[in-house]
Amino acid sequence: MTHLVDENMSSDAAVVFQHFFELSVDMLATASSDDGTWRSVNPAFERILGWSKSDLIGHLIAPLVHPDDLERTQAASADLDRGASLFEFEHRLRCKDGSYRWISWHAAVREADGLAYCIGRDVTARRAAEERQAFLLNLSEGLRDLAEPVEVQKFAQRLLGEYLGATRVGYAGDVGDGVPAQISIIEETAQRTLIAVERARAETALRRSELKYRDLFNSMDEGYCIIQILYEAGRPVDWRFLEVNPAFEKHNGLGNAVGRTMRELQPAIEPKWVDIYAHVAETGESLRFEEDSQALNGRTFNLFAFQVGNPDDKTVAVLFQDITEQRRSEKELRESEDRLRVLVAELQHRVRNMLTVVRSMFASTAETSENIDHLVDHFVGRLDALARTQVIVTSSVDQTVDLENLIRDELLSVGVHDGPAVEIEGPDVALSSKIGETLGLAFHELTTNALKYGALKAPNGRLNISWHVEMDDGGASKLHLCWAERGVPAISVNPSRQGFGRELIEDALAYRLDAETRLEFRSGGVRWSISLPLAG
């Protein structure tokens, strides 16, 4: 410190000066104007550049200067020798690890000792930000008049390659590991390129003049605003709207926003919004994201937020769109697709079951048919009965079958109506599709038999179909139904022929529906009764 402390300075002042010298966050140094060597440096040199005092004192300054900055540095030294002062002279100094940092110097030569007294400040971050901003500005300027997406991509690739010193630049879904600043500029370039591709023609008009920009600003469908982040005790707590476009209010419902803060407009706004915008303002990272806000009536937004203006101003531009209805429609579409898949699965199940029934019905009909005409007649009739049941099932919202409609449809298919010869009575009963399909076939067989041999053929024949529902001991509903014919003059009380209809009524119903059935061939006509649980 021989060359730094004035000999006339008191000891106390010297101690104070020494403390300032040692503790300063800026780089403080003296250098010889005669031989260009360092004479004293403070600890900030080692913290910023990595060089210790022993590395520097007595050594030349010039070897540390970036080759591209050496000529300017020598000219500045000559100015100092002539008595001039340096103010914010910036050049790059080599660090101990081989990298370079930008240092801004204030310096003057003291005549008493011939030393240059220097104060240096690390401005690397600022220079990097300026270079980044200049690159992004050049990128935006270059994209201004490009209307074709391919041209936009080629231009952005070339400019990014020049900025990064890369020989080849392409597009990929993942930039991988790398220097964060490079990753950030790559992501920013990709974002801006994407915007240019999507809005190339609009941006051409937008950048040609302020008037055209304003026209687009006022007419664009998306909401747009510029906001400034507000801090309390160093923490972001709110933001102020500096500028909004006419579509702003349409998308978020906030009126008269310019000059007011978000919490003035909506005190209940979620803290996550402040955190997101503050991140953009503080890091310069552009974000494209979707987010919802219960405070803004449950709206969902698609947003693109990016830093604008001086980074110290903490201003952010936000381009956004209310996509609540779009997301609601997508949700309804997904739900509709889910319901469709369920219906298709049910349909496939029903078709498989139906084919099983048809196959069984055909086999049984074929076994008991006397000839091909007999087979066709009976099989077509049974298919028609099955089809009628399916019409009833598919026309019902809850996929159920009304018992009375099932009976009447079968009788109407052969021209039989209510009247003196036919009585139908019973309460409303909704059958499951499974029960309806099976009972529908049973009613078809009984109707066909009555039409050919029974009460629907005999002049004095009578048919009574009645039912009621009871609760069993377990609280389950049970249907009791009776088909009773009378007035049939001649009928075999014990027919020997065992056809499909009889197998269905006596055996299949019991197996498929867990039913109890009884078929009686009385002297006055057929009587059939069935009891089955309605939960089937």
UniProtKB/TrEMBL annotation:
<dbReference type="Pfam" id="PF08447">
    <property type="entry name" value="PAS_3"/>
</dbReference>
<dbReference type="Pfam" id="PF08448">
    <property type="entry name" value="PAS_4"/>
</dbReference>
<dbReference type="InterPro" id="IPR001610">
    <property type="entry name" value="PAC"/>
</dbReference>
<keyword id="KW-0067">ATP-binding</keyword>
<feature type="domain" description="PAS">
    <location>
        <begin position="41"/>
        <end position="74"/>
    </location>
</feature>
<protein>
    <recommendedName>
        <fullName>histidine kinase</fullName>
        <ecNumber>2.7.13.3</ecNumber>
    </recommendedName>
</protein>
<keyword id="KW-0597">Phosphoprotein</keyword>
<dbReference type="InterPro" id="IPR013655">
    <property type="entry name" value="PAS_fold_3"/>
</dbReference>
<dbReference type="InterPro" id="IPR000014">
    <property type="entry name" value="PAS"/>
</dbReference>
<dbReference type="InterPro" id="IPR013656">
    <property type="entry name" value="PAS_4"/>
</dbReference>
<keyword id="KW-0808">Transferase</keyword>
<dbReference type="InterPro" id="IPR035965">
    <property type="entry name" value="PAS-like_dom_sf"/>
</dbReference>
<keyword id="KW-0547">Nucleotide-binding</keyword>
<keyword id="KW-0418">Kinase</keyword>
<dbReference type="InterPro" id="IPR011102">
    <property type="entry name" value="Sig_transdc_His_kinase_HWE"/>
</dbReference>
<dbReference type="Pfam" id="PF07536">
    <property type="entry name" value="HWE_HK"/>
</dbReference>
<dbReference type="InterPro" id="IPR036890">
    <property type="entry name" value="HATPase_C_sf"/>
</dbReference>
